[in-house]
Amino acid sequence: MPMSAGLETGFEGVTLFPAVLDGSAQRALLAELEAAFAQAPPYRPTMPRTGKPWSIRQTNLGSLGWLSGKDAYYYAPLNPLTQAPWPAIPPALLALWAEFAGYEAPPECCLANFYETDKARMGLHQDRDEEALDAPVLSLSLGDTCVFRIGGFARSDPTKSLRLASGDVLVLGGASRMRFHGVDRIIPASSQFLPQGGRLNLTLRRVTKP
Q: In this structure, is residue 116 part of a structural domain?
């Protein structure tokens, strides 16, 4: 795995590592992911309480999966659609965590979000359903570039945008672990990596305290 220098983002604890995975490493990882997604097919969640469908599809890897329930978000060891455990997190993703997360324990969840069109997006939110809030959130982008937005600790705080391209790693931790963030849009045809186009975002999380 090639070494990559982190770029300052203007937020303490938020670091962008561009082009961590080259094309061959991305293709090898995608082959493993496709096998995992055959076991746990991506699906379209709905919002708690409102039941409104999301603009993205998602699935999980690891010992715990992050889910959108009728009344709240939660983690569970079994896929509610298949009643089977989630597929294992590929070693290449665990290696990224070991290199960039700076945390004493491995991730327990890899949330896979599929942004299939330029209209798919993710509103500003906090990742706050984990017990181990001292652990960072690490994400790997594959496919089309996205416009990622990050703000403060209230939804109304000023924000700035970053562009995340295929092979980039973003770490959100430390003093910025609870910043609001989201995805404004996907830039169509900015990458030829995914055969069907769009973006796949893989988010590694430690859920329980070690």
A: yes
Question: For the chain, how many structural domains are there in total?
Answer: 1
* Structural domain includes residue 24: yes
Dihedral sign from CA coordinates of 50, 53, 58, 153: negative
Cβ pair 109, 127 in contact under 8 A: no
β-partners of residue 49 are none
145-155: pLDDT as tens digits: 999 999 999 99
Q: Which residues contact 192 (CB under 8 A, 6 or more apart)?
A: none
| Interval 106-160: pLDDT, tens | 999 999 999 998 889 999 999 999 999 999 999 999 999 999 999 999 999 999 9
Q: What percent of the chain clears pLDDT 90, i.e. is strictly above it?
A: 94
- Cα 126–chain centre separation: 13
Q: Report if residue 96 sits inside a domain.
A: yes
CA pair distance 182, 151, nearest whole angstrom: 9
Between CA 26 and CA 30 the distance in angstroms is 6
